[in-house]
Each structure stands twice: as C-alpha cells, then as structure tokens.
UniProtKB/TrEMBL annotation:
This protein's name: Sodium transporter
Protein family according to the UniProt entry: Belongs to the sodium:solute symporter (SSF) (TC 2.A.21) family.
InterPro entries in the record: Na/Glc_symporter_sf (IPR038377), Na/solute_symporter (IPR001734), Sodium:Solute_Symporter (IPR050277)
Keywords for this protein: Membrane, Transmembrane, Transmembrane helix, Transport
GO cellular component, one term: plasma membrane
Lineage: Bacteria, Pseudomonadati, Bacteroidota, Bacteroidia, Bacteroidales
Gene3D superfamilies for the chain: Sodium/glucose cotransporter
Amino acid sequence: MELQLQELDYWAIGIYILLMAGIGLSFGWFIKDVGAYFKGNGTIPWVMATVTNFMGLFSTFVFVAYAGIAYEYGLVSVTVFWSTVPACIIGSLWLGGRWRRTGCVTPIEYLEQRYSFSVREIMTWVGLLVRLLDNMVRLYAIGVFITVVTPLSLEWAIIISGIIVTLFNIIGGIWTVTIMSTVQFVILILITCVLLPVSLHEVGGIGGLYQQIPEKMTWFNGPKGAFFWLAIYYVMTMIKYNENWTFIQKFFCVKDEKAAKKMGVLTGILFLVFTPIFLIPAVASSLIVPELENPEMSYISVAIRLLPAGIMGIMFSSMFAATMSSLNAEYNVMSSVFTKDVYQRLFNMEAAEKRLLVVARWSTLVIGALITVGAIYIEGFGGAFEANKLFTGIFCIPIGIPLVLGIVSRKPNAKAAIITISAGIVVGIVLNALPEVDWEMATLIELIVCLVLYYLPVYGQMDMKDKVKVDELFNALNVNIDSTKVPSISSQYVKALMILLLVSLVVSGGLFIGMSIPNLHSMGGDLSLCAGILSLLLAVALCVVYKLKIKK
C-alpha cells in the first residue's frame, strides 16, 4: 500500500505553517516581561485557556498510541482515554481555586514557602527530567506520524519537528501558545469531524462495525479493559494530570478562582465529547487497512487511504498542530521553571525583566534541543504508549503527591516530601525492573508506599519559623482574590487578539474550501467544503459579538 502525501497536500501544509508563523511573530511584539511570556499576566480569557489546556494535554500521541489500542482492541481505547475526564474535572474543582490564589508564575514556586528551599530545588530538577521524558514521547509520536506519509526517516522527522516547535515557542510565549492553540483546535475539530463520517461510511456505519468486529465494540475488551488495570490507570492519570505543570500553569493564566474552575471543568467536558470522535476512525481502520504491521500507524493510514489530496494535507497539519500545541505549552512552562526557580532563585535574584526574558528564550532553545535528541531513542522503550506509561509510573506518583497534596495538607513537612520523592522513585524503578511484577501491581505498590511515607507521623514537628510560613500560605489559599486586584486585558490586546483570530479563521476556512474544490462530489471533499463554510461563519459570529461588546 502506497502512503504518500501529494503535491496539493504540501500546499495545504505550507499555508498552515505560514499562518502559524504569522501568529507567532504578531504576538511576539507584545511580550515585554516574563509575566506576560509565561502566564499572560493573568489576563487569558478562561474559554481560550480551556482550549489551550485541552490542546496542551494531548498531542499526536493520542492519534498514535491510543489509536494503536483502538486498532487492536476497539472501543476500550475510548474507555482508557476517558481517564482524562475525572482528572480534569475533579482536579479543577478541588485545586483550581487554590492554585490561582498562590499568585505564582510557576507551579514550583510555592514549594519553598510550603516546605523548604531544598524541596523546591529537588522538585525543580526531578520535575524537569520528567517533563523532558514525557515530551520526548510526544515528539517521537509526531515523528512516527510523519514517516508514514513522507520519505523522511524517523530521525529526520523528529529533528525537523523539534526545530519548528522550538522556534515558534521562542518567539511568542504563552500568548502565542494560546492563539495558536485556539486556531489549531478549530482546524483539528473540523478535520477530525470530516474523517469520522468518511471512515464510518467505508465500513457500513456503526452497525457495520458491530456486525464485522463485535468483540471490538465493547468498552472493556482486551487486557486494558480489565477492572484492575483501568482502576490503576485512572488513578495514575488523576495524579499525572494534576501535577502536570502545563495544567497548573493554566490556573495562573486566568483572572480569578471561578475562571480557573470553569477552565478545568470545560476541559474535562471537551475530553468526554471529542475522545470518541478522535478514536472511532482508528477502530474502523482495522477493517479498512487490516494489513498494518504497526497498529500505532492506524489513524494516519486510514486518513491517507480515505481523504482526497489537499484535505489529507489539512489532516496532516492538524495532527502536527496537536503536538505543536502540546509541546509549545510544555516548553513554555519548563522554561518558566528554569528561569524563575533555577536562574533567578539561585544565580540572580535581582535580575531585570529584560534579562529574565532573554534567559527564558535561551532556556526554551536548550529544552527543545534536549527533547529533540532524546525523542530519537524512545523507540527502544516499546513505542509511545508503553514509554509514556513507564515514565509516568516511575516518576509522576512520587513527585505528584508532595506537589498536589502539599497545597491542601498542612502537616507533612520538608522531610516527608524529600523522602517521598526519593524513596518513591527508587521503589518505582525497582518494581518496574522486575519481570514478575506487572505494571498495575508495581504502580499500586508505589502509590501506597508514597502515601504512607508522606503522611507517616515520624518526621517530627515543623519548627516555629516553618510553621509560620506554612500558616501564612494556607491563610492566603483560603481567602478569595480581591476583586479590585483582578487583572484585566487591555483594549490593545483585545483588538489584536480579535484581528488574529478572525484572520486565522478566514484563512482556515479558505484553506478548507480551496482544498475541497478539486474534490467536490466525493464525500471527503463535500465535508471539507462544509467545514470551510463553518469556519467562515464562526469568524462572522466572532466579529458580530466583538462589535456588540465594543458598543456596550
């Protein structure tokens, strides 16, 4: 089977890259300090923060790793990925307001007041390592995706992708991430909604799936559908998402606690609604392309089999966009931690804002280079899903418990946090190295060990100085943000924001319509035309709403 992009596809990809470059360069001019670069000075609208959060919490990893599960086992892939729903909703309702009240720029910043300087530094370096590993998996996933439809080798696909993502992030910071994610969200949703009916039509609809592969049309098929496996995976996802620096950063970006909670809840709802839309084509792919050797290539294979030239280019762009949004958000928050928690805290406490901004951009470059090089070696860990599961199981539980529970529990002290992190990682490495201990049991044991160590009442009482600091922190966390101190977005930003969004939606709509014209009277072409019209209508609706708001 020949799977290659056509000339029209490359035109679509080129237009998309120019659109993203325009967004990055435009908002790069607005970034004057690290507060704007990393958290938008708390002025990101909560709906846009939701979209950025949603796009930042998944990537092409979904269309590679989870699509591989869908190809082999069917709808259980949806059940597994729905672990994100309670993680986002419960986490935001429980923690969102408290994170916003910290007033921090980075997720690590509060740890010095909560525990000690040592805990802050340990969490900084271990956390950076975890985020590097996690993002190597994401970049590897887009590399796999690219190799299916281009002549590029995996190594070159990863290197080129890494360079593009890094450069975009250096230019503009969190506002660029936000605008790009919003545009990419629209393109991704539209194109996946094109592929869903096309793939279902190819196999005779949902009824055809039930008739031909009934065993795959259950929610609990295969080893990943076992209750114990799912229970552990859901708990692990709950911890992983709520200690995720990108997720926490979005609470800092919005104006107040209510906006923070709404952002997290809506993110969970988006995962609930769109997960089946993303993964059902991969379920159908087991009938459309049954000869695949690598199940992780199922989504891109069915897309290039069914979508016409040009429209496949949009699909490719949207898949790349998913990873770029995710990695942009990750690079931004990792750079913020390095700049504020390493450089400023350790080397230059009096650094000027311009100096910190330079450090932020250079650290983004270094982070991007490390992730790009490391991603080349992920294949040796058994593929995207297995590598992600392994790294999460070993590291995220030990660092997640002190980070997340520290904001709600007063009693555990610095010793408890340090012992939990160090002993938990050792236990995770040892258990995952033993072939006779399966992943579920290893993760459960590690979780129990970490919780016991964290709450074990044998570390002695906090000294009075530490107790005063912790009491001050919790007093602040229990008081709502003063409404007079809630930041507001300037009219200049709003105008620039709307212009960029409108131009982006018009260009996106034109891209869909333009690529549909050579393919009209095919299902993919007709649906692409509809997607383009919807994008243009959305631009008109936004313009009308903005005009009405100005008049008020």
